[in-house]
Amino acid sequence: MNLKKLVIEPLRKANPVTVLVLGICSCLAVTAKLKPALVMGLSVTVVTAFSNLIISLLRKGIPSRIRIIVQLVVVATLVILIDQFLKAFAYDVSKQLSVYVGLIITNCIIMGRLEAFALSHGPVESFFDGLGNGFGYSLILIIVAFFRELFGSGTLLGYQVIPQSFYDAGYQNNGLMILPPMALIIVGIVIWIRDAGRRDVRHET
Amino acid sequence: MKRLENWFENHEPKGRWSWLGSTYEAFHTFAFTPKTVTTSGCHVRDAVDLKRAMITVVIALIPAMLFGMWNIGYQSLHAGFWQNFWFGFIRMLPMIAVSYIVGLVIEFTFAQIRHHQVNEGYLVTGFLIPMIVPVTTPLWQLAIAVAFAVIIGKEVFGGTGMNFMNPALVARAFLFFAYPTRMSGDNVWIANDLWGTDGVVGATPLAELAAGMKPSASALDMFIGTIPGSTCETSVVAILIGAAILLVTGIASWRIMLSVIIGGGLMGLVFNQLPTANCQLSTYFEIPFYYHYLMGGFMFGAVFMATDPVTAAQTNIGKWIYGLLIGIFAVMLRVINPAYPEGMMLSILLMNCFAPLIDHCVVALNIRRRKRR
Question: Given CB atoms, is A185 within the 8 Å cutoff of chain B?
Answer without folding.
Answer: yes
